[in-house]
Design a protein that fits this description.
The protein is α/β, with parallel strands linked by helices and 387 residues long. It has three domains: 109 residues, P-loop containing nucleotide triphosphate hydrolases (Rossmann fold), CATH 3.40.50.300; 141 residues, Arc Repressor Mutant, subunit A; 96 residues, Trna Endonuclease, Chain: A, domain 1, CATH 3.40.1350. It is 39% helix and 18% strand. The chain is built from 16 helices and 14 strands. A six-stranded mixed β-sheet has the order 9-10-11-12-14-13, sandwiched between helices. A five-stranded parallel β-sheet has the order 2-3-4-1-5. The longest helix has 23 residues. It is globular, with a radius of gyration of 22 Å.
Length: 387
Amino acid sequence: MKNIVRHIPKIKESFFLFGPRGTGKSTWLTMSYPDALIIDLLSTSTFRTITANPERLIELVEGNPDKNTFIIDEVQKVPLILSVVHKLIEEKKDKQFILTGSSARKLKRTGVDLLAGRALLKKCHPFMASELKNLFNLSEALKIGLVPLIVASENPAGVLDTYIGLYLREEVQAEGLVRNINNFSRFLEAISFSYGSVLNISEVARECEVERKTVEGYISILEDLLISYSLPVFSKRAKRKMVKHSKFYYFDCGVFNAIRPKGPLDNRQGMYGISLEGLVLQNLLAWKDYSDFVCNIYYWRTHSGSEVDFVIYGENIFYGIEVKSSATIHPKDLSGLKSFHEDYPEATLLLLYMSKEILKKGKIICIPVETFLINLIPNQPLWKTNK
């Protein structure tokens, strides 16, 4: 696959770039900062040298006065190096330090303060459909996801099958994050049934045959490894009684498909629908994190059952989005957005579905999912309207 131009914003200040393994952090940095000096902590010799003497970084910086940018790859491998980076940022105002990581857990465990705000925090996501442009294939994306490592492979299905194993081996097991790797493996499968659903931790614990606190710890590990997201409920100015629990998503719909056990009793259409919902969410998250404006993503669900899949809310930004896996729009498909509009008439309402036509039904704009994703570009509106 040719090099894809990413929407990740290039900046001049020092910053952290966090993202799951395989999302293209190193590739993007190499393309965006071709003259940078790279300290790769995945290299055994570099890891050994820096671990023994973190101040070696000062020698590298001072020994390369012609270099203005220094990239420290997988910084969580040697958390103590951050104190050295902190010192260098204070003393070398003309130098830029870029620190990448696929986990913030070890940094948190060691009490590191992520440079006390002296470096920006940025995220790297799987491909956006608008980055792939004409290479984006919706059906294929729903099967294998959009992780660059997997999409660029000659055998994406095979690489996807081993992807979670890589995390288990290199991130969870190697770092000693869990005592019982078999319990954690069962947990990954059990919680996959909660993908796109309100998370019931007690139910997951019963399925895994472990304590609730253990499951809470496992979820924390997934979030620190950037493998999952918890989507909170939107309750601002709530006029109805709302549910309280978050919804759970893996960071990529292909990863979900690889983990989720399948059998003859599974509802294939239901799985397709939640995969589509997850694909939309991961594109929305990338759009949010790569944009300059500030907003958050929620879902909306009342105790009576009215629901909207995604609510995007920020200064001058307010959308309600429903995702449907059918090509035909039925009146019941619009009911959640209509209820939402009753409470929040300020919101722009979008329904994403599987047809080819852009329609408007009352206040609701109905857009083909693929059209929406291809046109989702950071720092631009989710959808241009005449409103």
